[in-house]
Design goal:
Helix content: 10-25%
CATH superfamily of the largest domain: Naphthalene 1,2-dioxygenase Alpha Subunit, Chain A, domain 1
Radius of gyration: 23 Å
Bound molecules: FE2/S2 (inorganic) cluster, fe (ii) ion
Number of strands: 19
Structural class: alpha+beta
Low-confidence stretches: none
Distance between the termini: 33 Å
CATH architecture of the largest domain: Alpha-Beta Complex
Strand content: 15-25%
Order of helices and strands: HHEEEEEEEEHEEEEHHHEEEEEEHHHHEH
CATH class of the largest domain: Alpha Beta
Length: 429
Amino acid sequence: MLTQEDNTLLTRTGPGTAMGALFRRFWQPVALSRELPEPDGPPMRLKILGEDLRAFRSTDGTVGLVSPRCPHRGADLFYGRNERNGIRCVYHGWKFGTDGRCQELPTMDSGPAREKAEQNVRLNAYPTREANGFIWSYLGPPGQVPPFPELEFTTVPPSHTYVSKKLQQCNWAQACEGGLDTAHFSFLHMALDDGEDATAKLLTKVSSNTDTVRWMRNDGAPRFTILDHAAGLILGAARRGDPNENYWRISQFLMPNHGLTPNAFPGENYHGQCWVPIDDVSCWIYNYTWNPDRPLSNAERDRFANGSGIHAEVDAHYIPIRRRENEYLLDRNKQKYETYTGIDGVSEQDACIQDSQGLIADRTTEHLGPTDMGIIRFRRLILDSAKALAAGDPPRALNHPAAYKVRGGGAVAPATQSLPEVLQARFGT
Ligand code: FES
Ligand SMILES: [Fe+2]
């Protein structure tokens, strides 16, 4: 449970908010590279942290991320012409580079006045970079750009990764909490007791080990151990496995808005998500899958593209096919006889239940218990970080880009082993 004050602090990320200021200190995914597929192609609209922006890929391939309106008389640069190293407002022809500087001012005769205007008139522009399928930007104070976080999926060959995005129709924080709350698998993603086959089919999409189905079904009260590290939190959840064994699901929270999933056994694909606020009632979820050891196959790519695990089935605008407006195409007959939700897709089941908490979840009336320990620690870390930054103390994760190179995953371990021992055996750290 949070006070109203802390719930407001956690969930508001627009201009002038403490949480928004925290997010702005970190590199954030702002688009998929494939949304701007070619130099001098169409510009795109986007909104992040309550701020409207326009993006365009320039002639040399770099991406400009700029304020949306032409400083002359406010025309929208979405309608601009992306031409030879800049975007031209088509109202009167002013032209701007990816750095926001004014390159051409055809409405003014050459002379001192025009030179002065060319010096002073500019778009607000944020630095961008690309890494394995995402366009990232730093939207914080100029001159304080942090090192790029060394998330493992950005360090492997592009052939080893698959990325996607989807709209989530609720506040970022409850969606992020859903990703960190690994206790929910025992119900939200589970088939009914008499539906073992359906469960096995579901699980083969996220894990090759169907024993995990049985362990998760039999133990809905995993015991959590949470460990701090420089970039975030390790969240270990132990369920009873076969006699004298625990089945561990270990996820990672990485500041300020990444979660790594807990399912992968050695050799399997790893997955992560990043919840990027659009405004206070919606966010983009940027999903990334990687295999450190081998390229992903075409069959795997096809499966992800059609919706599998964290990758939702979406339309051409990255809006989920099963979403709030159509009640996620819930099938009550399926809910009666096959699965708890009656909704197809792990990602869609997550979206439904997270959206159902409200556009902005009310955390003042909750009844948290032992399986919510990861959520409690996440809130404490992010709230403390926002408050510290507001008091002038930037988060330490900014100075530890290598601490982002971690994995989440599953492990079977003797029941006597602690989380640090399990981490050592499973990940060597
Ligand atoms: S409004 Fe853009 S050039 Fe006039
Ligand atoms: Fe889930």
